[in-house]
Inverse folding.
């Protein structure tokens, strides 16, 4: 037993073919230097045709070579991780930490409530003790229809969770699960019953979405609907907090008599005169509210369009956070962003190179970016804790006891934490929580955490941890890439720039990796020049490329 106690909960392997790739990269660098030399020593003399174009091409090729060198930091030291869940459960089965899951939605017109609740149900169904699992839905639109859908999902979960455990269902998003089955798998009586319950729930939700009105019967059954009035709108509404199920309440059980996870609805206050800081503001409100309800030391955040595809993701993650040797230096564990609406030859929505190559390379240099979804955090590091080699964060704490106040008193007391004015004259959005003032607040937050000495982990399991939907058309992709490139460039010129803020704090390879993304948008200048200018010169019969004959 003594020897087994110190067996690692995960292992790290270097990518195969690294030596071969380094030889190839070195030879390619030699070729780049030869091209630079040719350009430099063959610049047309003053007065000769094509001189300015040739110098411009030389500048573009210098940039391409420089940017290529930056990208090598993402390929030079690729690593892969493997977890040992059996060792985790053998050692800590009765001491697993509480986990809070944050699901964020912002617009029911773009993010249909039926999609949102499928994501919620998938994370409620993790292979994890339900009394240690809490799920929070942040509805930034303050939509009564989204609340109605979540209320319906909380009732359906009493049947769905036992079904998942009984048949070891994968995936545990009901819509994805039913779609994945063949006709021969749909003849079972248990399946027919759960499918009927889901279809009934989906029809009620979709009916309400079409009508835009909540049925009177539903309003009478739950007092939570009284929080909405005729003046409430997407950008102007009060804080609304509703605890739909509490795992500390012995009466909150499924049809098999097993405790259900805690389920909470939150719509933070929004007023036209107060800037709301988008998703970062919603996440910070969730951090504050959850600290008073469940206070899980581990936080998972997912977008509402990215459901859990692997019911063991929490256990996999805890192998990193609870490893005796290395867990003390890990701040967050990032899973890949995988999509189910892309094809093998997808042109626009694919992140295959980033997920399949580059993040593995960043992991070898200290850890990947925080990409805003599918990421497990330590609560303390999100709240600004500095790294210390001697300090250890205890994740094996007991759950909070039963509250003396009733649920309604709790809701009223905590609504102030999600008000517009709560963060005034505080460090929220600066030193505490997600950073404000940047379109890619997730990347900026991860960067500042790593600059405090923490490391992150990139984990890509054999079965994908999360599946979502992505842009599949050119116009959607341009809007998305504009936000990413603009945000990354803002980081480069902000006080948190990797060049000066990260210098001496980040691993040099990780710093270069951040610069690869920060310089992504300026890269287009050289690309456009190299694509357009030579063609214009050819119209005059002038070639800007080498002629060897």
């Amino acid at each position: 037993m003594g020897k087994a106690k110190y067996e690692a909960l995960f292992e790290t392997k270097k990518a195969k073919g690294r030596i071969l790739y380094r030889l190839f990269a070195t030879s390619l660098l030699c070729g780049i230097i030869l091209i630079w030399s040719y350009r430099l020593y063959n610049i047309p003399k003053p007065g000769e045709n094509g001189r300015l174009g040739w110098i411009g091409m030389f500048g573009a090729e210098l940039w391409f070579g420089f940017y290529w060198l930056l990208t090598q930091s993402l390929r030079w030291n690729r690593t892969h991780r493997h977890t040992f869940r059996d060792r985790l459960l053998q050692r800590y089965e009765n001491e697993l930490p509480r986990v809070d899951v944050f699901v964020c939605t912002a617009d029911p017109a773009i993010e249909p409530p039926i999609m949102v609740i499928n994501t919620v149900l998938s994370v409620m169904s993790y292979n994890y003790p339900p009394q240690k699992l809490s799920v929070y839905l942040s509805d930034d639109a303050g939509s009564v229809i989204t609340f109605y859908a979540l209320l319906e999902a909380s009732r359906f979960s009493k049947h769905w969770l036992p079904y998942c455990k009984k048949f070891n269902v994968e995936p545990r998003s009901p819509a994805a699960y039913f779609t994945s089955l063949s006709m021969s798998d749909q003849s079972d009586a248990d399946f027919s019953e759960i499918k009927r319950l889901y279809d009934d729930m989906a029809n009620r939700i979709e009916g309400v979405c079409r009508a835009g009105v909540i049925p009177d019967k539903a309003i009478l059954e739950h007092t939570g609907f009284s929080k909405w009035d005729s003046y409430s709108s997407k950008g102007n509404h009060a804080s609304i907090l509703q605890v739909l199920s509490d795992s500390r309440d012995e009466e909150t059980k499924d049809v098999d008599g097993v405790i259900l996870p805690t389920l909470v609805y939150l719509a933070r206050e929004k007023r036209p005169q107060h800037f709301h800081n988008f998703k970062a503001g919603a996440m910070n409100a969730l951090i504050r509210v959850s600290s008073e309800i469940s206070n899980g030391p581990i936080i998972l955040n997912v977008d509402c369009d990215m459901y859990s595809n692997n019911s063991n993701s929490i256990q996999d993650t805890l192998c990193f956070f609870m490893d005796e040797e290395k867990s003390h230096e890990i701040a967050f564990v990032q899973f890949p962003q995988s999509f189910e609406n892309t094809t093998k030859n997808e042109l626009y929505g694919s992140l295959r190179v980033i997920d399949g190559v580059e993040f593995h390379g960043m992991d070898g240099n200290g850890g990947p970016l925080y990409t805003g979804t599918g990421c497990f955090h330590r609560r303390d590091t999100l709240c600004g804790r500095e790294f210390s080699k001697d300090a250890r964060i205890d994740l094996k704490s007991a759950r909070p006891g039963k509250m003396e106040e009733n649920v309604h008193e709790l809701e009223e007391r905590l609504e102030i934490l999600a008000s517009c004015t709560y963060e005034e004259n505080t460090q929220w959005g600066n030193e505490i929580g997600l950073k404000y003032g940047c379109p890619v607040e997730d990347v900026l937050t991860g960067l500042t955490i790593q600059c405090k000495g923490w490391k992150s982990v990139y984990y890509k399991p054999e079965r994908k941890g999360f599946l979502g939907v992505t842009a599949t058309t050119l116009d959607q992709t341009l809007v998305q890439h504009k936000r990413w490139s603009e945000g990354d460039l803002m980081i480069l010129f902000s006080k948190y720039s990797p060049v000066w803020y990260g210098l001496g704090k980040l691993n040099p390879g990780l710093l270069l990796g951040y610069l690869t993304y920060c310089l992504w948008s300026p890269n287009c200048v050289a690309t456009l020049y190299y694509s357009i200018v030579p063609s214009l010169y050819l119209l005059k019969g002038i070639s800007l490329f080498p002629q060897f004959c």
